[in-house]
Amino acid sequence: MSSSRDEAGDGAPMLLPASKITCEVDRSLAAEAERALAAAGIGLAQVHSRRSVVLRERAALRFLPPTTGLDEDPVEVFELYVPRSRSRGVLLACARELRLFAPGRGAIYAEQVQRVGPMGPDPRAGNAGGDGAGQGAERLSPLALINCVVQRGHGNDIARRALELGTLVPTVNFGVGTGVRDRIGLLRIAIPAEKEVVSLLVEPEERDETMAALVDAGRLDQPGRGFIAAYPVEFGVGNPRVFRGPQRHRATMEQVISAIDELKAGSHWRSRSREAAASQAKRRYLAGLLNVTLDCNEGRAGELAAAAMAAGAGGATITKAKRFSPAGQPLAASPARELDRRAS
What's the pTM value of the predicted model, to 2 decimals? Predict the structure, then answer.
């Protein structure tokens, strides 16, 4: 169980501060990622599949103007929890081992959460015990994470709009919606339970502007169309390789951007003008909500979602994952997991 703030009522389980680290890599790098986690001393993690979406320029014939389509690649997403004091060292160790500071390799980021349940042993081996000092040009930037839940088949519409805005590479995974859909009577017939969850990283200054554009793209302000929320990311490394096509210059745009990031000592220079952001981000959003993730054995998420709804949760999306131990330790629970994510 994880959340974004400290809160516990009388008799409630103790919520312990932790950092949730999420690492997204191409499926061909999955074995390399498992070795990196093991080298960092991670005793417990879970993995699930998504697809990443990038733009591709295509030309049917040489004399015709090119068109822009979408390419999809399978990615593996690793999630792990570590003590907050170790999060920067673990993240840097994994990012360096997987070479995630190079465009196109993947992304890794850390969120501050509260957790009930095991995190595995405190990772202290090798670089995992450091605090990130001496990282040099390998800069970790504060980011914002946007999650958008839409009906199945509409995830790429949201991903395309995000890429057109210049966000980092979005990823999409499947889920099953519950909660609000179960409360709307006959209208539920027109709202499929199958969902797609689009996740993308943005600069903090561009969060509201991006959310407003995605609400318009998915018509998320209409009943039954979907849900969107943003969460702060303490620090991380994003994947800026959002475009594929013929290379017309010696360096790709992503390489140019990475070089300017180093010269500018960060990515703040990439933010669009505040005037443009102010003109587009006129929407009012709910604030101070609590995001809760329940990690349970496969088959139990439905009953846990029902209990959460009875207690006042607004809705939930259920996804599947596999728990494993990078360090090869025996598991105390079934590796087949269901993740019940909801806002309240």
Answer: 0.82
Q: What is the widest separation between alpha-carbon atoms in the chain?
A: 71
Q: Residue 299: left (phi > 0), alpha (psi -120 to 50), or beta?
A: left
The share of the chain scoring above pLDDT 90, in percent, equals 43
pLDDT confidence tier of residue 89, bands split at 50, 70 and 90: very high
Q: Measure the CA–CA gap between 309 and 318, rounded to whole angstroms.
A: 13
CA distance 14 to 24: 30
Domain ranges of the chain: 2-343
Give the angle subtended at the CA of 61 by the CAs of 57 and 64, to the nearest 5°.
75
Side chain identity, residue 300? R
In angstroms, how far is CA 152 from the centroid of its own chain?
18
Q: Which residue has the tokens 């000092």?
A: 133
Cα separations in angstroms, 229 against 147, 220, 241, 250, 255: 6, 11, 24, 39, 30
Residue with tokens 């475009």: 243
